[in-house]
């Protein structure tokens, strides 16, 4: 990208392939990748560890007042530190996934996370993925992409990911139910819901390979440059 700074926003529902695609794009372009979802997962993990309901607005508002979330890049990989501890692997459980979707509905939590996300984007060229990056977090991003896919295809992808990790026995139906819950939760929240920005380019990944999606997005980035 040379000396020209660029922000690439990739939004979409759970299982659409945002993180996978964003990581590849960041490596190909040599710019930072920021997994915003991991930040909400860290908040959810802290709430769960402190026995706080992830829908308790009052307690969560207080929780994030002094929360310490640090993003560290090492060996081309993003690590999430919560209160000084590497929790990168601990935030990838189904329980934390649901919790992250819940805490993301709390305005004070989102304001705190967005503040950090915008600061990082103001200092670096970034690829940022989430639910409302193009519509709310980075409304002036140079390239905005909205990834989508059939809900069963998204559930299938997430199911295969979980099976590969061997974290616990889980059924496809459980994953599908989780995805449907998160879709409804993310789209219906009153503050910064999951939505496609008016100037975003929608890419349906249902029948596309990872390479096809990456090349499509890189084509739009090239058009910008």
TrEMBL record:
- What is any one GO biological process for this UniProt entry? nucleobase-containing small molecule interconversion
Q: Which keywords has UniProt assigned to this entry?
A: ATP-binding, Cytoplasm, Kinase, Nucleotide-binding, Transferase
Q: Where is the Cytidylate kinase domain positioned along the sequence?
A: 8-222
Tell me which CDD domains the record gives: CMPK
The positions annotated for binding ATP are 12-20
Its EC number is 2.7.4.25
Q: What class of enzyme is it?
A: transferase
Q: Where is the signal peptide?
A: none
What is one cellular component GO term in this UniProt entry? cytosol
InterPro entries attached to this UniProt entry: Cytidylate_kin, Cytidylate_kinase_dom, P-loop_NTPase
One of the record's GO molecular function terms = ATP binding
Subcellular location, in the record's words?
Cytoplasm
Catalytic function, reaction form: dCMP + ATP = dCDP + ADP; CMP + ATP = CDP + ADP
- Spell out the PANTHER family in the cross-references: CYTIDYLATE KINASE (PTHR21299:SF2), CYTIDYLATE KINASE/PANTOATE-BETA-ALANINE LIGASE (PTHR21299)
Q: Which family does it belong to?
A: Belongs to the cytidylate kinase family. Type 1 subfamily.
**What is the protein named?**
Cytidylate kinase
Q: Which organism is it from?
A: Acetivibrio saccincola
